[in-house]
């Protein structure tokens, strides 16, 4: 009887919670996971910016779909923007003008959507570079690295299909650029173009098709990848920077609930506020200044969004080579950049597997590297970024020529030469800087920190007093693992039978020596060296 009375007295909310928990098991699931520990470091917020930007894109995109008409049917504009009244345009362009001038808050939402997309791709690249430089992609996170790379690529193409939807002169020029690249594909190029546009360019269907791809196909795939990415982050536990008490078997930080969730919630609104402020202050994509797309027109200074500048730069810098075979023209000036684009972009995606093969390391890694302690990897990352920047300059060669009063031909030749030379120079310089920083760390470990205090010794010599490092600092500077270069080993066994050494094994050994051999990493100070210095054979 008392049990029934207790049930009647339970609050309604508790009864609903008990009912749901009895069917979904939420309480036990939350109890096991809500207190999960996450480490705290400012660089981990880069991934959060990606997530929050994506949420903002979804929220503003839902609002914009309520008013956008994805149709290329021709209509005469009679909206409130007077300079365009009476102009023939597609329904897509007309509805975008209506969103910008007649829908309450429409222009602000449009700009938040566009700025959030730009920030989303930028944050993904910076986040991936943080993961790359710190070695967070190593086992067991190689698959998650690939998921992140796919999110980056899909984000780029989702942005491209998105800014093509208004059917304005700028986006139409970008679509024409893409169609030309598709046509350069041997044999199947024309078929692909006809399939995509429903006939001769621009056809009457591409806005509707891009609309379906933009709001359904690509975001759906991205949502699945994002959920899988977060599940793996949760399952593998978050990486952490080395320090006292931090090992591969623990995580030092704050619990997910309530500390981390409170900070994450506040950071989401901070990101939303910054993006909204940028959107309110800085105009982006003012289509009313450009007018509707016409196949025989090209807007002055036509530039894609920055993340599509790399393929644009490849095609602008490529010489206009053509080959005529059997009555057919192969446009190498477009087709070769079309092949190079995924190679340059994808080279960074396969690095975790290349590094794992070179090192032969099968251990799990939950502690991050300091970039200076992996000189070759860091140099490869900087070389890739420098390549990206060179191609961005190529994608805007006309704008650089206009604003800096330079020859467009000189800029084009700089991009052609820089495509090969700049990454090599960036690699060499970065590697030397990393080795120099390693030497400085070793000097700190052995001799301590420079204090700026000058001391005169009894025999008249002046020396600078060094302050010994704390144990915490010593641990941070010396806890990293140093690989030993791979060796081919004996080619003849104890029975005198010669072992055949394959080409791949020779390549692996050569690459291993190039990454970890003499001159490619500075050996850490030994305990004996440290004790000898600390015993008095130095000035402190």
UniProtKB/TrEMBL annotation:
Entry EC no(s): 7.1.1.8
Predominant cellular place of this UniProt entry's protein: membrane
The reaction(s) this protein catalyses: a quinol + 2 Fe(III)-[cytochrome c](out) = a quinone + 2 Fe(II)-[cytochrome c](out) + 2 H(+)(out)
Molecular function GO terms recorded: metal ion binding; oxidoreductase activity; quinol-cytochrome-c reductase activity
GO biological process, one term: respiratory electron transport chain
Membrane topology: Multi-pass membrane protein
Enzyme class: translocase
Protein keywords: Cell membrane, Electron transport, Heme, Iron, Membrane, Metal-binding, Respiratory chain, Translocase, Transmembrane, Transmembrane helix, Transport
Names of required cofactors: heme
Domain named Cytochrome b/b6 N-terminal region profile: residues: 16-242
Protein name per its UniProtKB record: Cytochrome bc1 complex cytochrome b subunit
Organism: Streptomyces globosus
High-level lineage: Bacteria, Bacillati, Actinomycetota, Actinomycetes, Kitasatosporales
């Amino acid at each position: 009887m008392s049990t029934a009375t207790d049930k009647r007295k339970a609050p309604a909310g508790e009864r609903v919670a008990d009912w749901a928990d009895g069917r979904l098991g939420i309480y036990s699931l939350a109890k096991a996971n809500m207190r999960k520990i996450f480490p705290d470091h400012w660089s981990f917020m880069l991934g959060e910016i990606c997530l929050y930007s994506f949420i903002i894109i979804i929220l503003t995109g839902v609002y914009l779909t309520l008013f956008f008409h994805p149709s290329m049917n021709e209509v005469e504009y009679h909206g409130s923007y007077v300079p365009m009244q009476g102009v023939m345009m597609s329904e897509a362009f007309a509805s975008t003008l209506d969103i910008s001038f007649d829908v309450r808050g429409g222009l602000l939402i449009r700009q938040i959507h566009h700025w959030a997309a730009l920030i989303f791709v930028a944050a993904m690249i910076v986040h991936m570079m943080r993961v790359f430089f710190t070695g967070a992609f190593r086992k067991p996170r190689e698959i998650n690295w690939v998921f992140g790379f796919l999110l980056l690529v899909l984000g780029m193409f989702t942005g491209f299909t998105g800014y093509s939807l208004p059917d304005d002169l700028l986006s139409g020029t970008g679509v024409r650029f893409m169609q030309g690249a598709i046509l350069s594909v041997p044999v199947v190029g024309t078929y692909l173009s006809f399939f995509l546009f429903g006939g001769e360019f621009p056809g009457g269907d591409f806005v509707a098709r891009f609309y379906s791809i933009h709001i359904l196909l690509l975001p759906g795939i991205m949502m699945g990848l994002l959920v899988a990415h977060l599940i793996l982050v949760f399952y593998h536990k978050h990486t952490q920077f080395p320090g006292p008490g931090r090992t591969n078997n623990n995580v030092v930080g704050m619990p997910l609930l309530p500390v981390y969730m409170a900070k994450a919630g506040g950071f989401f609104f901070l990101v939303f506020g910054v993006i909204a402020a940028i959107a309110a202050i800085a105009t982006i994509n003012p289509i009313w200044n450009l007018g509707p797309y016409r196949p025989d027109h090209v807007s002055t200074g036509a530039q894609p969004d920055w993340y599509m500048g790399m393929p644009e730069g490849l095609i602008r810098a490529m010489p206009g080579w053509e080959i005529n075979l059997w009555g057919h023209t192969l446009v190498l000036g477009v087709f070769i950049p079309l092949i190079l684009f995924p190679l340059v972009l994808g080279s960074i995606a396969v690095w975790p597997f290349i590094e794992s093969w070179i090192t032969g390391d099968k251990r799990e890694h939950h502690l991050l590297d300091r970039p200076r302690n992996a000189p070759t990897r860091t140099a490869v990352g900087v070389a890739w970024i420098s390549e990206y920047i060179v191609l961005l300059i190529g994608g805007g060669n006309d704008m650089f020529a206009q604003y800096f009063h330079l020859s467009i031909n000189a800029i084009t030749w700089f991009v052609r030469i820089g495509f090969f030379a700049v990454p090599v120079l960036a690699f060499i310089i970065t590697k030397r800087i990393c080795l120099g920083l390693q030497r400085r760390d070793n000097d700190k470990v052995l001799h301590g920190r420079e204090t700026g205090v000058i001391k005169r010794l009894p025999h008249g010599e002046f020396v600078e007093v060094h302050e010994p490092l704390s144990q915490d600092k010593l641990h941070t500077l010396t806890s990293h693992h140093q690989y030993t270069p791979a060796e081919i080993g004996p080619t003849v066994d104890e029975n005198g039978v010669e072992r055949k050494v394959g080409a791949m094994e020779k390549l692996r050994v050569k690459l291993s020596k190039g990454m970890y051999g003499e001159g490619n990493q500075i050996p850490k100070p030994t305990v004996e060296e440290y004790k000898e210095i600390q015993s008095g054979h130095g000035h402190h």
